[in-house]
What we know:
The structure holds 2 protein chains of 2 kinds. Chain A is about 35% helix and about 35% strand.
Amino acid sequence: MILQEKVPGGKLLCVEVELSAGRIGKIRITGDFFLHPEESIEAIERGLIGSRPDEVAAKVSAILSRERAQLIGAAPEDIERLVKRAVG
Amino acid sequence: MRWRVVPYSENDAFLNMAIDEAVSESVRSGESQPTIRFYGWSPSAISIGYFQSLEREVDVARCAESGVDVVRRRTGGGAVFHDSEITYSIIGKEGLFPKDIIASYREICGSLIRALGILGISAEFKPINDIITDGKKISGNAQTRRGGVLLQHGTLLYEVDVERMFSLLRVPDEKIKDKMIASVKERVTSIRQQRDVSREEVLEALLKGFTEGRDSGEAALTEKELCRARELAESRYMKKEWNWMR
C-alpha cells in the first residue's frame, strides 16, 4: 500500500509498505525530503523490517542517532503516521 | 580563503552532476579551492532528488521522445525541469559554512537574493530550501554534506513553461492535472515574469551576488576534474542502477 502526504511545514513524504503477520515485511520511503547522509535511507528501510507500525518512530529515531544522520523536512513521527495510515 | 569561480558552461545532465561530484572530491583532497560554478543543461533535462521514485515522478518515455535527459541527483529535494534556467553550485569544506543546515541554506541563498536584488527583484529565503519573490518560488536549492565537504546546487528560473514541464512529469492523479498546472502557475515565477533582462545580465548579477565579500578568481576546471567527471558520468549518472535506484 502506498500513501503520500505533504508534511505540514515540511516536504512530500511517500511510504510504500507491506505487512506480514502485523510486522513490516517491505518498506520504501521516497519523497522530496532531505537526509544527511543520504545513504542512511537504506539503513532506515532495512532497520524497519520486522517492526510493528507503532514502533516506527522510535526505530527511525534510534537509527538516525546511530548513523549520526539528520532528517530534514519530515520527522520520524511523520513516517510512523504514514505507515499506520497505509496499513490501517 | 580564495574561491575559484568556474564560468558558465552547458553540458548534458550526466556530466553536470558528475562535475559537481568530481569538484567535491578535489575540494575534499585540497587539490582545488572552494568552488562556485554556474551552468546550463544541454539538452534540457529533468533532475530528481536522491529519495524520489523515478517511476512515479517522471514520464521517462515522454522525456526520451522529447530528447530530455533524466538524471538522479546526489542531493535530496524535488524534481527540477532544467530548461530555461541557470544552475549554480557552491562547493567547499563544511567549516566554511554554518553548521546548522537551514542556516547554511539561508547564507548561500543570500548570494542569490543579492543577485536578484541587482536585477531589481526583491526576494527572500523561505525555509527549507526555496527563494521566493512576490510570494512565488523563483529558486529551489538542494544540499549534501559528504566527507567534510558541503555541496549545494540550485536553480534560478529564467523563464518557465509549466505546461511543458507537466507534460514530462507524472502527477498522482491525471484527472486533476489541469488543476495542478494552474496551482503551480500560481506558486512559481521566473526572472522574465518579473523583469525584462537578458540571460547575460542574470549571469553577471549572479557572479556579483556570489563573489561579493569573497576573495575569488575565475578559473577553469582542472584536467583531472574533467577526466574524473567523465568517469563518474559513465559509472554512475548514466547508469540505470543509479537513476532507477528508487
